[in-house]
Amino acid sequence: MQCQPADIKQLGTILGIWAHPDDEAWAMAGLIAIARRNQQRVVLITATRGDAGKTANETRWPQTQLGEIRTKELEDCLRLLDVSEHYWLDYEDGGLAAAGSATAVKQLTDIMNDVRPDSVFTFEPNGITGHSDHKTICSWAHQAVSESNLPVTAYGAIESAENYEQACCDCQTILKDIYFNTDKPVTKPMNKMDLCIPLPTDIQDLKLRALKCQPSQTKQLFDDPEGLIFIKAHARCECFTKL
Questions:
Q1: Which run of H or of E encompasses 172?
Q2: Gap between the Cα atoms of 102 and 108, Å rounded
Q3: What percent of the chain has pLDDT over 70?
Q4: CATH topology of domain 5-242
Q5: CA distance 59 to 167
């Protein structure tokens, strides 16, 4: 379903459930920005501090300090997006699959029952990049929605077939491992999406600024011609499938 900015109001109170700092910016910064302009409530959850992730520059953003660095980067990003409600779960980065799902699902369910969202956003089941943390957070979020007994619609961020073929396929070949743990993400045509949001130009610019707020993860993309193609492609449209 093509969704215009005015339609975002129908999503009501929004809860985003993500594995790492920067997941929210890649997947839904545009949606967040539009919702906040509508004065909708947006609450975000981040499961880890991202301290096991790659760093764009070891000298500038040393791996040993990456958790603290990415914590500050996410704070800057959320400030830009006008999100003041955020929860850290503080699980080990890269270790969600090994963590106890019962405890994690209860944490998410408790937050969900407190926030009482109308719409929940996370990854599609394959996690876009194949990252085990992405797949696990999707599973936890889906279970929490079921256990909350709230009338919630859950959506998973997914790559569109059109975006992948037009921009991301060549970038994947040149940049290598841009999708982390898969040669090609699971895709879906835009006309088959449950929610497809073409972002207005000003919102695209804001999404790029949100990604720039997390330079330890994104600066190498902004500095590379192919990376810039890739990152701008992800600022044009945000797509989701119902879970």
A1: helix 169-175
A2: 10
A3: 91
A4: Rossmann fold (3.40.50)
A5: 31
